[in-house]
Amino acid sequence: MKNVFIFLMLLVIALTFHNFIVCSSFPEEKIVQVELKGEINSGTVELVNKALKLTQKFGSEFLIIEINTNGGYLASTEEIVNLILNSPIEVIAYVGPSGATAFSAGTYIALAAKEIVMEEGTVIGSAQPRDITGAKDPKVINAMAGWIRSIAEKRGRNESLAEKFVTENLDLTAKEAYSKGLIDHEVKNYSEFLKLYNFTGKEIVVLKKGFREKFISLISDPVIIGLMFSTAVLLILVGLSHPTIIEEIVAAILVILALSGLGYIGINLLAAILFLLGAATMFFELKIGHGAFAVLGVGIMLVGVFLMYQHEYFLWREGKGTYTSGLAVLTLTISGLIGLYLHKIRQVLKYKTKYHDLRKLIGKRGIVRKEIGPLKPGVVFVDSDLWTAKSKQKIKKGEEVKVTEIEGLTLHVERVKREDKRENPQKN
Predict the structure, then answer these.
(1) Is the pLDDT of residue 314 over 50?
(2) What is residue 398's three-state secondary structure?
(3) pTM
(4) Contacts of 259 (CB under 8 A, 6+ apart)
(5) Which residues in 297-318 are b (16+ Cβ under 10 Å) and which e?
(6) Is residue 20 part of a domain?
(7) DSSP string of 316-327?
(8) 83 closest CA partner among 28, 131, 151, 181
(9) CATH number of the domain bearing residue 157
(10) What is the domain range of residue 319?
(11) If I label 338, which of 58, 174, 187, 252 is the partner at 20 to 30 A Cα–Cα?
(12) CA 335 to chain centre
């Protein structure tokens, strides 16, 4: 078992070193392109932030944001816009491919970019904010109209036209947006876009939502947050009438995830909490021993490990499925071995001889070394040791006795009858 753990540790170190080498030896002329597809949420914020950091690692001056979305959450949109506006990197918003839309949140993000390029057959606009019921709030609309004007002003775009995206839910095709001077270029296809910026021949590193970003998006969804809190309450109620504590552990995890989705717990802290909670759950297997806690602990630790893992480029390379599968198999193997090891430890602890269990002395015989009286404790020699002893009868020194009861470290004894002596001779 010791050799197996040494081998696994060396394997982990080797993979980590390889990962470091790959991440530290980027070839030149790499352009990062991040895909903003579907709903704009906290996971999207994480993705854009990651793309900006990777662009800086590459030493590139440009970041391409490919937009195809119908909108998302206001808080997440504000974070993304602020990241773009305050970044020294020149962000190019590309609305494509043909048929793509930059509605609502996508409109704000596109306008925040240094340059906007739209492919033929795409649309931008409809940025009026609504609440969860679809109702409009004039105060919010006025606030967002002012915000989008400030974004347009920052980038030197048509402010009044940008404001109409909010106040009138204006929509513009690529041709209309270009003719009105809202965007910088209109292209026929993606290849023309690459030629426009001399990106042809350069390696384009495309970023999509991975496990980390998808997980953040999931737990940030208001509906999911509500379900997690509701489920946690139900599990706690069930756990009150159940002998195990699995329900309480799962409920605690759901509450932690919900708090992270609400923004009270950062994603890195969440990863650490889940990893430690998974480890604690596995160690709890020593107390239970039926395997459920080991399995639950492995699952929790896996989620924590994947949330901790941020060397993204290593997973983006060609054949990323092999690396991802390898990491998952390695983590499962190590966790499984740890679980098995803990299970074996529990078995040993459960079945090993308990040398200090005084109940083993009941029924054993010994010799009185100091006289025992009804109200006067004496001393007996039992099981190769001297013990304080009590008895309801007077027993003289040298007589044989049998242990009948244990009280703390005091033995209760009685005199052995003659017939018992013949049947069960005792030597001490």
Answers:
(1) no
(2) coil
(3) 0.60
(4) 265
(5) bbbbbbbbbbbebeebbbbbee
(6) no
(7) HSTTHHHHHHHH
(8) 151
(9) 3.90.226.10
(10) 216-351
(11) 252
(12) 15
